[in-house]
Design a protein that fits this description.
This protein is of the alpha/beta class. It folds into 2 domains: 6-175, Peroxisomal Thiolase, Chain A, domain 1 (3-Layer(aba) Sandwich), CATH 3.40.47.10; 179-327, Thiolase/Chalcone synthase (Peroxisomal Thiolase, Chain A, domain 1, 3-Layer(aba) Sandwich). It is built from 11 helices and 13 strands. The protein has helices spanning 23-27, 34-41, 55-69, 94-102, 117-130, 154-157, 206-210, 220-242, 259-269, 280-283, 288-300, and strands at residues 6-15, 20-22, 45-47, 79-83, 107-111, 136-143, 163-172, 177-185, 193-194, 217-218, 251-254, 309-316, 320-327. It binds coenzyme A.
């Protein structure tokens, strides 16, 4: 039985805070060098939100742009899904904050899938559209990671940045659009990438603060290996589900964690780096915002054209990984 509806991305938006923190700025903050950061990660600079700015502040700006680019108004949005690991509060959800700031009248919820949050949320939006329940869904990835980074830990503070991206996922009767999704997880590896404090396992106390448990913790080299393996596997699985071959893929738009990870994934897939969208040098790792901002830039630059096969792929804490195949 063929499904009655398809979902496609009809509008994209991004928002990066104005302030830029370069590797040279970081040299003055921790024992590091521009050369080390560039050679190990490919990152040159990242955007950092002003103190007092929340993820919903960034997300609502990206959302307004995406809605406008979709040719819609806020009243057309029937559901808001926000992917974030840096919510405004433990609750209410950041999606509710964005719903209010937009003036939307619809359901809203957050999705906790870390850096894989955007393809995870897009898969949920796709299912709501395919089922006929909704026509237009706003999917946002928004992060103020700067508030959760230990700025005295050189192994992590050089990697991350703040930013937001948004997409409107709409009902379409065309053949194209979102063709397949693939979601994966492995909680056995939760410890290699996490913010351990502040949840029900370790509620905030003077001790958790003194032990720096509210900052992002990462076993970098372990995460690196898993990232390469899972992103390679996720791309292969989603194109299999979509019924296409690797050589038909026009663009791979990966989570922007580290240039060396992206190169390694490209090599494993035997895909030319000309087909891999990269912007990590300007933004660092923006967690759930990375993939959607990269997609927005690739579309705005005219790289992604109608008829192209695009694979979004991401991995993150959880562990989680996910991929989306789109026939643009
Ligand atoms: N500046 C200078 N030296 C640094 C440094 C920095 N910013 N950060 C770490 N180092 C040092 C380490 O202390 C270590 O020193 P030692 O050998 O004296 O102990 C040395 O550099 C090598 O560290 P190592 O961890 O082996 O480097 P690496 O090649 O694995 O690169 C990462 C480190 C973090 C860049 C890399 O592991 C990585 O990108 N991992 C994945 C991270 C990621 O994607 N996270 C997000 C997932 S969503």
């Amino acid at each position: 039985m063929t499904e009655p509806y398809r979902a496609c991305i009809t509008g994209l938006g991004s928002y990066l805070p104005e302030k830029v923190l370069s590797n040279f700025d970081l040299e003055k903050m921790v024992e590091t060098t521009d050369e080390w950061i560039r050679s190990r990660t490919g990152i040159r600079e990242r955007h950092i939100a002003e103190k007092g700015t929340s993820s919903s502040d960034l997300g609502v700006n990206a959302a307004r742009q995406a809605i406008k680019n979709a040719g819609l108004t806020v009243s057309d949005i029937e559901l808001i899904i926000v992917a974030t690991i840096t919510p405004d509060m433990l609750f209410p959800s950041t999606a509710c904050m964005i719903q209010h700031k937009l003036g939307a009248e619809c359901g809203a919820f957050d999705m906790a899938a870390a850096c894989a949050g955007f393809p995870y949320a897009t898969a949920v939006a796709d299912a709501f559209i395919r089922s006929g329940i909704h026509k237009h869904i706003l999917v946002v990835g928004a992060e103020v990671l700067s508030g959760f980074i230990d700025w005295s830990d050189r192994a992590t503070c050089v990697l991350f940045g703040d930013g937001a991206g948004a997409a409107v996922v709409s009902r379409s009767e065309d053949e194209g659009g979102i063709i397949a999704s693939y979601l994966g997880s492995d909680g056995a590896q939760a410890d290699i990438l996490k913010i351990p404090g502040g949840g029900s396992a370790h509620p905030t106390t003077n001790e958790t603060v003194a032990d720096r448990m509210h900052y992002l913790k990462m076993e970098g080299s372990e995460v690196f290996k898993v990232a390469v393996r899972t992103m390679d596997a996720a791309v292969r699985e989603v194109i299999k589900r979509g019924g296409i071959q690797l050589d038909q893929v026009d663009w791979v738009i990966p989570h922007q964690a580290n240039m060396r990870i992206l190169t390694a994934v490209g090599e494993r897939l035997k895909i030319s780096m000309d087909k891999v969208v990269v912007n990590v040098e300007r933004y660092g790792n923006m967690s759930s915002a990375s993939t959607v901002v990269a997609l927005h830039e690739a579309v705005a630059d005219g790289k992604v054209k109608k008829g192209d096969y695009v694979v979004l792929v991401a991995f993150g804490g959880g562990l989680t990984w996910a991929a989306t195949l789109i026939h643009w």
